[in-house]
């Protein structure tokens, strides 16, 4: 009987954590346009080709309304950003 309140509390905290996590992931796809430049500045901070990186990152952000986290990879968090390709089939978005 003593474990029942603990299990209920654990269940409630787990559900709240999952709701919070889903809101964070959803937020990547609803980025306000004013936040594109700072996110792209960070995204392009590790490349030696800053000008083209910023150009395409901001273009992709304006269209997709998201920028993946980090300076490289993690494109699965932004499906539109990940699917946009050049004529040659290479990723358009940095």
Automatic annotation (TrEMBL):
The keyword ATP-binding does not apply. The keyword Transferase does not apply. It comes from the Eukaryota. Residues 1-27 form the signal peptide. Keywords: Signal. PANTHER family: EXTENSIN, PROLINE-RICH PROTEIN, GIBBERELLIN-REGULATED PROTEIN 5. Belongs to the GASA family. This is Protein RSI-1. It comes from Salvia divinorum. The gene is RSI1.
């Amino acid at each position: 009987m003593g474990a029942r309140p603990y299990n209920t509390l654990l269940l409630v905290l787990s559900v709240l954590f999952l709701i919070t996590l889903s809101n964070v992931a959803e937020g990547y796809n609803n980025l306000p346009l004013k936040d594109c430049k700072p996110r792209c500045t960070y995204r392009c901070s590790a490349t030696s080709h800053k000008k083209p990186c910023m150009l395409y990152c901001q273009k992709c952000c304006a269209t997709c309304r998201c920028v993946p986290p980090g300076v490289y990879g993690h494109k699965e968090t932004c499906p539109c950003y990940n699917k946009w390709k050049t004529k040659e089939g290479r990723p358009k978005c940095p």
